[in-house]
Design brief:
Bound molecules: D-MYO-inositol-1-phosphate
Order of helices and strands: HEEHEEEHEEEEEEHEHEHEEH
Distance between the termini: 41 Å
Number of strands: 15
Strand order of the largest sheet: 4-3-5-6-7-8-9-10
Shape: globular
Largest sheet: 8 strands, mixed
Length: 261
């Protein structure tokens, strides 16, 4: 029987809400362990939220493939794949900045079919099903129509490794004088939702992982945005750009001129 993406969305929604509620109980003293670099942090709360989601998936969808940030890898081998970021915006969470979320996406045969991004601090639940539009708290989302890069508000993010950050700074140095302004808000998934919601005109970043971008990419696309890598690549670990379709080509060229790849 063909899989109903809405039933997969329901599972993602339930688990994102439960994980978000758990994360809202942030302890006063939160200690962080280092991952890829000393500033790339993981806390007991990231791990507890991921455990909750993985246990929920194991109960409801045993055998599916799961790619989860904190477990650092892939488990299972089914045609249905779940991309789980239990806490995107970990550094904000660590410092008590209310800009973090739970992100869960699901794909069938490699194609994204449903995505949920839950921002518990703002009580905002972003959701999308492929071909069914994107919503925030059930209200339809639409990206902006700003076509002029000089008037565009961009979001971006930076990696944790010093060499990657130096390259990102070089690109930013060239982009910043040519756009309205740039925001670095600290959660890739929420940045993509901001494109969907028209809170920024575009977002770009390099060095992301599939759990960072999968749900947000579907939500942004379903809100009308074009989301691709540069030079015709799909979204991935190289630079990924999400923008309204009227802006995409100009920003793409601006990024390439700036040395992004
Ligand atoms: C990070 C955030 C950040 C982005 C980084 C991501 P994490 O994820 O999304 O905004 O710039 O590239 O790694 O570490 O908070 O899960």
């Amino acid at each position: 029987m063909p899989l109903d993406p809405s039933s997969l969305l329901d599972i993602a929604t339930t688990l994102a809400l439960e994980a978000g509620d758990l994360l809202l109980h942030r302890p006063a003293h939160l200690t962080a362990a280092a991952k890829s670099t000393p500033t790339d942090a993981v806390t007991a709360m990231d791990r507890a939220a991921e455990r909750l989601i993985l246990d929920g998936l194991a109960q409801r969808r045993p055998g599916d493939t799961v790619v989860a940030e904190e477990s650092g890898g892939v488990s299972g081998a089914g045609d249905v794949t779940w991309w789980v970021d239990p806490l995107d915006g970990t550094v904000n969470y660590l410092y008590g900045v209310p800009q973090w979320c739970v992100s869960i996406a699901v794909g069938v045969d490699g194609e994204l079919v449903a995505g949920v991004v839950y921002d518990p601090a703002k009580h905002e639940l972003y959701r999308a099903v492929r071909g069914g539009g994107a919503t925030c708290n059930d209200a339809p989302l639409r990206c902006t129509q700003q076509a002029d890069p000089a008037m565009a508000l961009l979001a971006t993010g930076f990696g944790y490794a010093a060499t990657a950050r130096a390259e990102q700074a070089d690109v930013l140095r060239s982009v910043l004088p040519r756009v309205r302004d740039v925001r670095r808000m600290g959660s890739a998934a929420l940045d993509l939702c901001a494109v969907a919601a028209g809170r920024v005109d575009a977002y770009y970043e390099s060095g992301m992982h599939p759990w960072d971008w999968s749900a947000g990419v579907l939500i942004a696309r379903e809100a009308g945005a074009r989301v691709e890598g540069l030079q015709g690549r799909p979204p991935g670990s190289h630079t990924t750009l999400a923008a309204n379709p009227a802006l995409f080509a100009a920003l793409h060229d601006l990024l390439v001129d700036a040395g992004a790849y």
